[in-house]
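Design job #97: recover the sequence.
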């Protein structure tokens, strides 16, 4: 599809679907892992406010089936930074607790709930309302029943939230422990949004986008996974996925001038939680989040085996199918199909499933949940059978589930009738065997297009006519 078919010229230089490590309005930690029994594995994330004004960062923890189980707020003063351990949250129930011995106003953890006089001293931010921040600023300590509900959802996929007003009973909202590294491993992902209020509102509620979410690109962040288990003993980290608001700025709930679209983006990161929804029988304006969409095709480098026993895992986040996720429909995010995977060795030899040329679907149906971690030696990837005996190369991933149902911004993109699903991939490389613990690194896979690129058709590797390569990096 030619780019001109769905792109429109603009004088706004901020109109871009290209994702980069720039200050953003939403941050995505695509995968986390916590060993709840002994802290053998822990994931840390850090949020930084790079603006002089105070900001509210709204954090949501999701299961690997894209079901939200906890949300909390971080009040960040100007130029503030906050680091948090997910083991502390999931197991100890500690979220950046107040420390009376520290200087008030320095970081969000220094602010005493209910007293924000010093926290706002660096500069006033007319976009935020701190009226309720005393109650929902930093919970400090979660009660034992709340911790039990969160652990059950992230470890076993069962959200029997006795501590909350509602729960899901026996309905599965995440994968079972049998699919995790151990029977006590918690997995999931999280999102961080800049917002105008300190509330417990979940992003699956359309009122969150109508009344609370903001559009200032002021947050940056990173994450690291520490693994001290036997045979691993490594640490690796990467920037969070930085998702910008386009256009940026404005007050919460602001609507555009009559006849103008909310954004020039063809679709948005949170669109499935907004588009088609209503509040009090009044339709919510689509694309209110204005967040950039993510890519669907990636190139992921790998090294597996060899004389120093390299390990490569891919941490894969995928956009769920269900819109506002409920206890009843979370399972639809448990097995998202992968249309095409091709492995190349270092001598450009392609490897596919069964090494036969067949049209889609793949000879072996590959599915993953909304977030997962998989070794490149696992069965979800074609077997490494390098004629040259290579132990490394790269993997082409087309992760478009084909089931995205988000409304397209046809006012600006009239020819954009079907979109790919959103995804992200992080590569984790570590030493194994006698080299375990000697090194570890993590970095983003290369996106072969951006969130506005057209859907990738079947490649020649599986009997199609499309040649694997970069997609058009379309922009509004």
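Job complete. Output follows.
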């Amino acid at each position: 599809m030619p780019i001109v078919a769905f792109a429109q010229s603009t004088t706004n230089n901020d109109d871009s679907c290209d994702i980069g490590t720039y200050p953003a309005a939403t941050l995505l930690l695509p995968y986390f892992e916590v060993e709840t029994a002994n802290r053998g594995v822990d994931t840390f994330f850090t949020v930084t406010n790079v603006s002089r004004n105070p900001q509210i960062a709204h954090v949501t923890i999701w299961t690997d089936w894209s079901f939200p189980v906890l949300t909390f707020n971080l009040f960040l003063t100007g130029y503030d930074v906050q680091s948090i351990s997910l083991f502390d949250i999931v197991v100890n129930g500690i979220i950046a607790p107040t420390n009376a011995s520290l200087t008030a106003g320095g970081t969000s953890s220094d602010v005493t709930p209910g007293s924000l006089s010093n926290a706002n001293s660096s500069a006033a931010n007319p976009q935020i309302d701190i009226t309720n921040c005393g109650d929902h600023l930093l919970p400090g300590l979660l009660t034992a029943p709340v911790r039990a509900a969160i652990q059950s959802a992230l470890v076993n996929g069962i959200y029997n939230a006795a501590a909350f007003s509602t729960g899901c009973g026996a309905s599965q909202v995440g994968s079972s422990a049998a699919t995790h590294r151990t029977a006590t491993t918690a997995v999931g992902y999280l999102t961080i949004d800049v917002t105008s209020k300190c509330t417990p509102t979940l992003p699956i509620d359309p009122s969150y986008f109508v009344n609370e979410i903001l559009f200032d690109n002021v947050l940056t962040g990173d994450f690291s996974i520490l693994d001290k288990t036997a045979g691993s003993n490594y640490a690796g980290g990467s920037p969070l996925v930085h998702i910008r608001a386009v256009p940026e700025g404005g007050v919460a709930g602001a609507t555009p001038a009559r006849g103008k679209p909310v954004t020039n983006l063809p679709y948005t990161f949170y669109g499935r939680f907004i588009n088609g929804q209503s509040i009090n029988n009044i339709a919510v304006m689509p694309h209110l989040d204005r967040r950039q969409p993510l890519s669907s095709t990636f190139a992921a480098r790998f090294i597996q085996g060899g004389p120093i026993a390299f390990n490569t895992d891919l941490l894969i986040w995928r956009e769920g199918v269900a819109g506002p996720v409920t206890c009843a429909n979370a399972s639809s995010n448990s097995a998202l199909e992968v249309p095409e995977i091709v492995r190349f060795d270092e001598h450009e030899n392609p490897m596919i499933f069964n090494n036969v040329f067949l049209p889609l679907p793949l000879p072996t149906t590959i599915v993953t949940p909304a977030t997962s971690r998989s070794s490149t030696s696992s069965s979800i990837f074609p077997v490494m059978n390098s004629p040259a005996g290579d132990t490394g190369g790269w993997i082409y991933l087309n992760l478009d589930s084909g089931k995205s149902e988000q409304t397209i911004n046809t006012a600006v993109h009239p020819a954009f009738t079907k979109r790919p699903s959103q995804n992200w991939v992080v590569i984790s490389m570590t030493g194994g065997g006698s080299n375990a613990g000697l090194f570890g690194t993590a970095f983003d896979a290369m996106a072969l297009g951006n969130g506005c690129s057209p859907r990738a058709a079947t490649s020649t590797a599986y009997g199609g006519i499309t040649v694997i390569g970069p997609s058009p990096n379309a922009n509004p």
